[in-house]
Design goal:
Blueprint lengths: L4 E4 L4 E3 H5 L10 H12 L5 H14 L1 H15 L4 E6 L1 H10 L6 E4 L10 H19 L9 E5 L3 H5 L3 H4 L1 E4 L6 H13 L3 E4 L6 H9 L4 H22 L4 E4 L8 H9 L3 E5 L14 E4 L2 H8 L6 E4 L12 H4 L4 E6 L9 H21 L3 E4 L14 E3 L9 E6 L4 H4 L6 E4 L7 H4 L4 E3 L4 H8 L2 H8 L9
Parallel strand pairs: 3-4, 5-6, 5-8, 6-7, 8-9, 9-10, 10-11, 12-13, 12-15, 13-14, 15-16, 16-17
Antiparallel strand pairs: 1-2, 1-3
Helix pairs in contact: 2-3, 2-4, 3-11, 6-10, 10-11, 11-12
């Protein structure tokens, strides 16, 4: 266990590991965080494209980089209290480069780790390689047309409802819901769509090098991803693909595929699949974000990108609009999210605390409380108590007040009722949802909910969150 720590003016100390677990993921989607990723990637002196992939890798997949970012966040927030920092050499190098703290004393406790990518993630990459190779072996009569949709699960159809049935739909391995993926496959095929399983041509030699480890493992991962995506780009070019519809800003190596595709004259349209910020380096012809801030983020390092807003939602809800249900009895709807599957402990704690507060309020005021289960969660992962629902139709007959930590469902429920978003320290909801939000903290949540029991207050708040229509 790392002994990296801050010594404070009052004589106490705080471990870096303890700092990170209390911070929301949004801290790791700020400009400062990406500066840290750039700094550490430059130490490897890779070529332009591989540098981009390595920055993406560190931004999305490195717990160690988040440790360093958490410390810098803490130092910036408690600058007057921190007097001494005991840390590994890489942490100290980043601090000296990015944090102005002349009076802070730095004490090295050892060399930087040989890799910033943990073994657990290396194993997940190995599984991804194997699954992609297996998907490539599945026989099919479906030919690849000039227009393709890269997809994973049913959300793809919400993004590209027409193209899913008129273009070639290529489905790639989806480790978080295999059954969900194959239900989507069968649904499209039954409706006459041209759907097939697809995979990237990952190298088996790369798999062996990945499992062997070594000091240059981060560079090996970059080489594996870059090579697979570049080779796949050439496959698509040879097959005559001219237009790609996708939603893969979470793929660290995708930039290595789309740069040569765009150079070859292929149009690449990406629609954001969620509210978060993922790979800082992308290569798309167009990017449709859920809000202007998200689109602007991806345009920062891809200046040729044409950015805009999504016109639709992931889901069309079977609910009455806010105007139609304003006279109905109120109910609270809390969005479940599978935070622990992605090691988001601060968000998971926030969800639990929010649920606890809502349970107490609803029991006292005799107001129904529903938990909208995340598609990738199972009921056993949730605490007992409120009614757990999987379909939106279950809340018909109520005037809903939606509560979320930071779910993409924020955009799905626009127009159906007010949406409260968590604004505890370090959560930074504006990153995901823009400005003019109805936010809550634990201390203020009951009072806000109580106010929204009034029909007039409810309608006023609901009107703030009407869906955008794109451009």
């Amino acid at each position: 266990m790392s002994l990296e720590r801050c010594l404070l003016a009052d004589g106490s100390s705080v471990l870096i590991a303890d700092i990170k677990c209390k911070l929301a993921l949004s801290v790791f989607q700020t400009d400062l965080f990406y500066q840290i990723c750039e700094f550490l990637a430059r130490l490897h002196e890779l070529d332009r494209l591989e540098h981009k992939v390595l920055v993406n890798l560190y931004a999305l997949k490195s717990s160690r980089v988040k440790d360093i970012a958490a410390l810098i966040y803490y130092v910036n927030e408690h600058r007057s209290d921190v007097v001494e920092i005991h840390a590994l050499d890489d942490t100290i190098a980043v601090l000296r480069s990015l944090v102005a703290g002349e009076r802070i004393v730095f004490q090295s406790i050892g060399q930087a780790p040989s890799s910033y990518i943990e073994k657990s993630f290396r194993l997940s990459i190995a599984m991804k390689i194997i699954l992609n190779r297996l998907f490539r072996l599945v026989p099919t009569r479906v030919q690849i047309s000039q227009s393709i949709v890269r997809g994973w699960v049913d959300v793809t159809e919400a993004m590209y409802p027409e193209e899913v049935l008129t273009s070639s739909l290529l489905l790639y391995p989806f480790p978080y819901g295999i059954a969900r993926q194959f239900r989507f496959f069968r649904s499209v095929r039954r409706r006459g769509g041209y759907v097939r399983l697809a995979g990237l041509p990952y190298s088996l030699l790369g798999l062996w090098r990945l499992l062997s480890g070594g000091r240059a493992i981060d560079v090996h991962i970059v080489a594996i991803e870059t090579s697979a995506y570049q080779r796949y780009a050439q496959e698509l070019i040879r097959r005559g693909v001219r237009r790609v519809h996708t939603s893969d800003e979470f793929e660290v190596g995708a930039v290595a595929m789309y740069e040569p595709l765009i150079e070859a004259g292929v149009t690449v349209l990406n629609t954001a699949h969620g509210v978060g910020l993922y790979s800082p380096y992308v290569a798309y012809s167009e990017f449709k974000g859920v809000n202007a801030a998200q689109s602007a983020f991806y345009q920062q390092r891809c200046i040729e990108l044409k950015s805009g807003l999504r016109k639709g939602k992931n889901t069309t809800l079977p609910l009455a609009t806010a105007d139609a249900c304003r006279s109905l009895p109120p109910a609270i709807v809390l969005f479940d999210q599978n935070f622990l599957a992605f090691n988001c402990t601060a968000e998971a704690d926030a969800l639990c605390e929010t649920q606890r507060i809502l349970e107490a309020f609803c029991a006292s005021e005799k107001v129904p409380l529903f938990i909208k289960v995340h598609p990738n969660s199972s009921p056993t992962e949730l605490s007992s108590g409120p009614e757990q629902i999987r379909t939106w139709a279950a809340i018909n007959g109520f005037r809903p007040i939606f509560v979320t930590v930071n779910s993409t469902a924020f955009y799905d429920v626009q127009g159906y009722g007010p949406i409260l978003v968590c604004d505890e320290p370090s959560f930074l909801p504006e990153i995901y949802f823009g400005s003019d939000l109805l936010v809550y903290r634990y201390a203020t949540l009951p009072a806000i909910i109580e106010d929204l029991m009034s029909e007039s207050a409810w309608w006023s708040a609901a009107s703030r969150h009407m869906p955008n229509t794109g451009d």
